[in-house]
Write a structure and sequence with these properties.
This protein has 136 residues and is mostly helical. It has four helices and no strands. It is globular and about 50 Å long. The mean pLDDT is 83.
């Protein structure tokens, strides 16, 4: 694993992906709130029934994406290093979560959602790589 992607590359790619995901969820929320944009059929596997449900799930997704970004920054020692052990454990949990999420994306009804399986499998590999790095 260490020969495939370095720790620093995993951190950089994860920061980029989590930042883009945060921006994506923020865009959906802003689009819903200010422009009456509600892509219920495209997101969350097409399983949302109401726009309010979609908004709640998008807010949760935004919070989770920002949390993941913070965990990566802590693990890379760019932020508070006293939580580095917590960040390592969290990255293991995120690795398993993204594996499950990949399966969920693959069985989704929309093609758009199935595309995110590629992103979640990449994130699972990056989280695994960061979790495997010994703490300094």
């Amino acid at each position: 694993m260490k020969n495939i992607v370095s720790f620093n590359q995993a951190v950089q790619l994860s920061v980029i992906i989590f930042s883009l995901l945060s921006l994506f969820h923020l865009t959906i929320i802003i689009g819903f709130m200010f422009f009456d944009f509600n892509p219920i059929k495209l997101l969350w596997g097409g399983r949302m029934k109401t726009v309010d449900e979609l908004l709640k799930f998008e807010i949760i997704s935004l919070v989770v994406s920002v949390f993941c970004l913070i965990v990566v920054l802590v693990r890379s020692q760019s932020l508070i290093s006293i939580f580095i052990d917590f960040s390592r454990v969290t990255l293991w949990l995120l690795f398993f979560l993204f594996i499950l999420n990949t399966v969920g994306n693959l069985i989704a009804e929309s093609i758009f959602e199935k595309f995110f399986a590629l992103i979640t499998v990449i994130l699972s590999i990056l989280c695994l790589r960061m979790a495997l790095e010994p703490t300094k």
